[in-house]
Amino acid sequence: MIDHRISFIHNDTEYSFIKPMNSSLSGYSLVKACREEVRIYMAKNGMKGDYILTGMAEV
Q1: Nearest-angstrom CA–CA distance, 5 and 31
Q2: How far apart are the first and last CA of the chain?
Q3: Helix, strand, or coil here: 37?
Q4: What band does 32 get if pLDDT is binned at 50, 70 and 90?
Q5: Whether the Cβ atoms of residue 1 and residue 21 lie closer than 8 Å to each other
Q6: What's residue 41's pLDDT?
Q7: Counting runs of H as helices and runs of E as strands, what totals does the chain give?
Q8: Average pLDDT over residues 15-20
């Protein structure tokens, strides 16, 4: 597992969080996993609507 900082914009506010991701993920598989983590984060925090994934990086 490798920690990744995932950043996204929702309703003109930028959010970021750190999430451990499987180290075997790369390319599009990693992007899909990050998008799913954003959807989970938004659901847990009562956010609804669209978002823009702005970044992901190993930390």
Answers
A1: 12
A2: 11
A3: helix
A4: very high
A5: yes
A6: 97
A7: 1, 3
A8: 96
| Nearest Cα to Cα of residue 8 among 29, 33, 39 | 39
Placement of tokens 């999430």 in the chain: 19
DSSP helix/strand/coil, 2: strand
Beta strands, E only, 1-59: 2-10, 13-21, 52-58
Q: CA-to-CA distance for 15 and 13, rounded, in angstroms?
A: 7
Q: What is the per-residue pLDDT across 5-15, written as a single tens digit (0 to 9) for each?
A: 999 999 999 99
* pTM (two decimals): 0.90
Rounded-to-integer distance, Cα 57 and Cα 19, Å: 10
Give the amino acid at 48. Answer: K
Q: What is the mean pLDDT of the chain?
A: 95
